[in-house]
Amino acid sequence: MVLITSSTPASWPSSSPLRELLKMLVKSGNSEHESLNCSKVFIPSVFDNGSWQILEPIMFVEVTMPEEFHGTVIGQLNKRGGIITGTEGSEGWTTIYAEVPLNNMFGYAGELRSMTQGKGEFSMEYSRYSPCLPDVQEQLIRKYQEEMGILPDQKKKKN
């Protein structure tokens, strides 16, 4: 089996690496070189004409705080695109479990300290990859196109 990995051409919407794009079984008589040449024709066709999505890492987040801050912390996790998966409470403390996109977790430590008067703490670990929301995907593509100078032609405004 040959795993085809390739960096994306500049003409594609994002420069992100392709993850598990194509696995090919090399039949007897076919060399790895022949399979790679075939993929150079096949991969662009699939990417240009197929369905694809940009994936983002989703983190499993565990937040512990005094129970008086429970509602505020849940609200902030929701604002960050989090999905609450569970809560526990004991002796005046609450633990919230959630899944949140990694990109939305930047700056959370300081925000949590502010919300909980310095009493809250959190940990996070990788959970999985998930397709980006459509608006996030459009922002990523637009940013990449701006950086590469390949924005689609914009209509000129008439005065």
| Arithmetic mean of pLDDT | 80
Number of strands: 6
The SS-based structural class is alpha+beta
**What is the count of DSSP helices, taking H or I runs of 4+ residues?**
4
Calculate the terminal CA-CA distance, rounded to whole Å: 60 Å
CATH architecture of the domain at 55-131: 2-Layer Sandwich
What does this molecule look like?
Its main location: mitochondrion. It is found in: Mitochondrion. One of its GO terms (cellular component) is mitochondrion. This protein is α+β, with helices and mostly antiparallel strands and 159 residues long. Among the domains are: 16-49, no CATH class; 55-131, Alpha-Beta Plaits. It has four helices and six strands; from the N terminus they run E-E-H-E-H-E-E-H-E-H. The protein has helices at residues 32-49, 70-79, 108-115, 134-148; strands at 2-4, 22-24, 55-66, 83-90, 93-101, 121-131. The chain has a four-stranded antiparallel β-sheet with strand order 4-5-3-6, with helices on one face. It has a two-stranded antiparallel ribbon with strand order 1-2. The chain is elongated, with a radius of gyration of 22 Å. The N and C termini lie far apart (60 Å). Residues 1-7 have low confidence and may be disordered.
